[in-house]
Amino acid sequence: MTPSLGDVPIYIWQVPTDVITTRIITQGEACKGDRVDSDEAEMCAPPGEEIVGFRQMGLRILDEGGPAALMRGWQARVGYWAPAIGIFLSCYCSIRQTAVAADFFP
Q1: Per-chain mean pLDDT for the chain
Q2: Binning pLDDT at 50, 70 and 90, where does residue 17 land?
Q3: 3-class SS at 30?
Q4: What mean pLDDT do residues 3-7 have?
Q5: Which of 31-35, 74-78, 88-92 tops mean pLDDT?
Q6: In this structure, is residue 106 part of a structural domain?
């Protein structure tokens, strides 16, 4: 598990780009249905505005919620990826050691 904890700063560093990317992907999707929940309403493009790119969406998020809005969901990301990578690396190393011991690699 220790190697995966070393990656925590990387996961946190990637959160703003994931927030912006998610908002770009979903910026018009929530508004297409008949019913829009309050959580989905914040993802809708404001009336009269066109769908925007990465830089413009980042600026919009900063305007709407400040720097803290860019870090939304960092706990879930770290809580998911740190153990997942730790488990993956443990399994990979075990399988590789078994394969080397069984002489699968000449």
Answers
A1: 80
A2: very high
A3: coil
A4: 67
A5: 88-92
A6: no
Angle subtended at Cα 96 by Cα 94 and Cα 101, rounded to the nearest 5 degrees? 95
The number of folded domains in the chain is 1
CA dihedral of residues 16, 62, 48, 52 (deg, nearest 10): -40
The alpha carbon of residue 55 and the mean position of all alpha carbons in its chain are separated, in whole angstroms, by 17
pLDDT at 41 over 80: no
- Identify the DSSP state of 1: -
- Which are the contacts of 59, defined by CB distance < 8 A and separation ≥ 6? none
Structural domain including 87 reads 2-101
Polymer length of the chain: 106
- For 39-57, give one letter per residue: b (16+ CB within 10 A) or e: eeeebbbeeeeeeeeeeeb
User: Which tokens go with 69?
Assistant: 């809005």
Contact 11, 81 (CB under 8 A): yes
Residue 87 within any structural domain of the chain: yes
Q: Are the beta carbons of 12 and 74 closer than 8 angstroms? A: yes
